[in-house]
Amino acid sequence: MSRQQTQVLATWLISITAVVVILPIVLVVFYVVAKGIGTVNWQFLSQPPSNGMTEGGIFPALLGTVILTLGTAVAAIPLAVGAAIYLAEYAGDNRATRAIRLAIVNLAGIPSIVYGLFGLGMFVLFLNFGTSILAGALTLGLMTLPVVISTAEEAILAVPQEFRVVSLSLGASRWQTIRHQVLPHALPGIITGIILGLGRAAGETAPILFTVAAFYLPELPKSIFDQTMALPYHLYVISTQVPGMPLSIQYGTALVLLIIVLSFTLVATVIRTVMRRRRQW
Amino acid sequence: MSTLDEAPAAWQEQQPSGAPAAKRNWRETIIETVIRLCGISAVVIITLIFLFLLKEGAPAFMQVPIRDLLGVRWYPIEDMFGLLPLLVGSLLVTIGAVVIAVPLGLTTAVYLGEFAPPWLREILKPVIEVLAGIPSIVLGFLGWVALAPLIQAAGAATGLTAFTGAIILAYMALPTIISITEDALYAVPKEYRDGALALGATQWQTIWRVVLPAARSGIVIAVMLGVGRAIGETMAVMLVTGNAANIPAFGLGAWFQPVRTMTATIAAEMGEVAQGSLHYSVLFAIGIVLFLITFAFNSLATRFIGGRSRRRGGQI
User: Does residue A119 carry a pLDDT above 80?
Assistant: First the structure.
């Protein structure tokens, strides 16, 4: 085979593998939409499940996911942004910094089910929060940290050094410089990271299994010390644990979860694209 | 340390007008301390995670002899805690996922980085981000209702097999592998490509002989992080692998039998055990094993990254 033939063959093969990767993704999304769209309407979203969950809607699970996502945001954002500022602006090139970076990479790699175990051991039992929204949100928050830290750090590092130099030379202190010159320019990037992290948290099941998620609750949670239903766990429950569950409700639930999580991704992508166009440096 | 600390003392002491110097220094110190604590928290958290896993899981190692933990039967009701079937289950699914995902991921990254026209790349990259965003429970659900019947129709005894899990996991690991490989390809200097092409190499020869070797450390990292992702996946695997804690017969057929992974075991059984029981501790012990495996993979991957400079901007 001549090298020109190899070139043609390689181009074809590589293009085909790209199709093999891309096509199923598109199919999966269309499949869920096609199968689920008939079920999703206002009633489905606003009604609680009824008749042993085989009828009715998903409202308590939907609300639970919204509450848990907000809780995750409260738990994760301050710590993550602080850590990102530290790494980008303060940390020197020394052993302590390397330890922090190693810790973050490993936090990102810890399986979500292990976060669930940790949440059970520390928040539910040791701190005695019980199986509660508080325990679940803290667990999800910790899991979200590494994603937000890494993207926020990248965003802060991308602010040109000149901004800092000029601010300092005008007499601003180090924190004033960070607060008024660096962070405003890094903000879109930081927000993108937060949204991506929260989107992942909203779709996670394993960390909430033992820390907050309830199989079925007749009432809505009243405080952060109550359990709540949550959409990902609800999908797990109705697809495997409830006999005689109509497929339409399962697909409808999967579709709503998919829409929620993908809208996070979409918003993050839009912010990033707009930001790249606007950036003047 | 950073350059501000090395600046002349006189320059540092100069305080601008406005807030009194003492007050500003005081505020600045508090803020810096808080930020420093945020940074250190990452180390504290990962230490806490390990300590709490140890606290709950240690009784398992003390009360169940190591020989029994390495046994071939997982049958908690009769206090048989052989972890081998679960380990084999995780291994089968992960190896399957790697065999599928690594070649596909590398070639897709090459396609995106070297072959695809820019407009197509702008469309395809968000599609792959969509894949990264699909919750594992949704993929698991689809594997359960749509993929498993296909596998069964193709001739397997049941659709819920290690292979089914491997396919789903492969697609979950693909975004990681693709995006890191693409970054690695992008980081190869343009001069390398120009040089090869100028010497008369075809595009494929350039990629195969020059670009890929130059990007190999990044590719290794991509594969390792992908593997780490696959080992730790829980919900999708739980739905599609059949959850049978048996060691399948040796050979290729092993992939077409139901298995049970370590992650799925924890997820499926933790809800039903009494807190503080032996079974409970053993589930935490599995958590320790998972923690150590992923820690090893990620630490090794970071070692590869270690040599590269990641700093674009600067510090003050």
Answer: yes
